[in-house]
Amino acid sequence: MKKLCKNLTFQVLTAIAVGIILGLLAPDAAKAMKPLGDLFINMVKMIIAPIIFFTIVLGIGKMGDMKKVGRVGGKALLYFEIVTTFALAIGLIIANLMNPGEGVHLDTSKGKEQVAQFASEGEKMNFVDFVTHIVPSNMVDAFAKGEILQVVFIAILFGFALASLGSFGKPVIDLFDRISKVFFKIVSIIMRVAPVGAFGAIAFTIGNYGLSSMLPLGKLMISVYITMILFVFIVLNVICKLYGFSLWNYLKFIKEELLIVLGTSSSESVLPRMMDKMEKYGCSKSVVGLVLPTGYSFNLDGTSIYLTMAVVFLAQVSGVDLSLTQEITILFILMLTSKGAATVTGGGFIVLASTLSAMKIIPMEGLALLLGVDRFMSEARAIINMIGNGIATIVIAKSENEFNPNKKEEIEVNVETNVM
Asked: Which residue range forms the structural domain that includes residue 280?
């Protein structure tokens, strides 16, 4: 029993259960728990930038082969585009089959200010701005603001420069290796309070929004969850089989991370831990460093599914009968706009607003309907995003012969030995 209580999976599950009960029985007290969730996520965000930087720099610096770095990056971007397009298309198809907007009344009196804010941000959003945003005007500012893509860009440049120095750069690589280990030790310390963070976040969600807020849009939520489950166990499962590894074993390996994301509604809350886990699973440090952080901006499978389903839902609620040509147009618009969803706060809504603004046939006011239930769907989006990025990392590692399955087997043997 003592060993079970020390298990992180057990602790997080217990914390989530207690948070839900508190949210249902004492909503006001549950709302006051919000700072606990915010503190945990801030603690993780605090170390994301340096961990990404050191991992990428060490990966490139130790790899030495610049052509290989370019090849890995190219493969990753191609994979991201193909899989997210599948996710967008599946969301579009299921939304048309299930018609989640049928019978939902469009009430434009709520959330006007928030909708106006998202609409304003959406109008400003374009692909050129997204690309130029990747290059920071100030190196320190990129780290201070935790801009993942900008940190990735800086790290790649630094890694290239360090690798080109040969033996002269080796002392720097050794120093960075030691510093990196310190940051990953900080991660393990922070994860001890993960149950507290999960408790605070889930208690606030239930206490603030209440389960009753889900009922009017229950069909949309069920449609989104079913689609995401089908995507994981059909599309991603096929990808896993093609590359010779088990989806189920992979999910068991990251079960603690899945629960933390479920509790906090943030895939960023486990990014440093996922980088460490992917290395332990068998992926090389260089591939993990290049693929996983980049995937958090370019490979948002869960967000992609939600976006297409939300657009079709809003069209149905507004009484707009979309033609096949218009739905294909939605697909192409979202292929571009969805890539910026993770770079700004409220990214999902801003992408939705920019898509509706570009189409000019679906009323923007419908966004107000989604405000109340978005928090309940964000857990699913975050979990699918995380699962998809882990699988992408394994796929690219295997395609580059940068995967060592013995690492995972050694870990499992050590765990079993310790338990016994």
From this structure: 8-71+82-419
